Amino acid sequence: MANAFESPFAGRYLSEMVRNPNISVGRYSYYSGWYHGHGFDDCARYISPVPGEGDRLRIGAFCSIGTGAVFVMGGNQGHRMDWVSTFPFHWDEDPVLGHAPNGYAPAGDTVIGDDVWIGAEAMILPGVAVGPGAVIGARALVARDVAPYAVVAGNPAREIRKRFGEAEIAMLLEMRWWDWPIEEIRAALDLLCSGDVAGLHARWTARGG
Fold first, then answer.
1. 112 and 21: one domain?
2. Catalytic residue among 36, 38, 79, 201, which?
3. 3 lies in a domain?
4. Helical ranges in the chain per DSSP H
């Protein structure tokens, strides 16, 4: 099968790749999947192809997703830890076993905020919410929600640090630069490509917020 990517250094916008109706993506978010070869839809595992059926995968704007990232969908996939057995008997359809109740339970949508960087082969479990500006380390197993601008890594993923101080994070969440018109983003690239959060906030405030 042909590689969906031209080189390790050429990502593709999700808006150009996604076909599953239960995956929604924001502008300019991209997947860089050369080393695994497949398109982004294959990163979302066990997601229904039927519009409106099951949990959705929602990805914000300006996200960067590394090769082989996995978003596990499908809720509990019929495995009930509160029952005596976790085996999904209803799925087996064995006439000897008979008809068992369906143990499926949804987990809720998986939500990736804006400006999130997800490292290579990271795995996001069902129903997790990742806040804006967060960084997910390569091969991290994310089983819990991730706070805005947090850096997490490991198995299970744990917060290592915040990218900025609380005051700066509050400014960033107030500005929501990822929602600005593209002309305003272009005009602010000198500050967006720096660590000067206060300077960006001052410029935004001077322009009327």
1. yes
2. 79
3. no
4. 14-17, 89-92, 166-175, 182-187, 189-192, 197-206
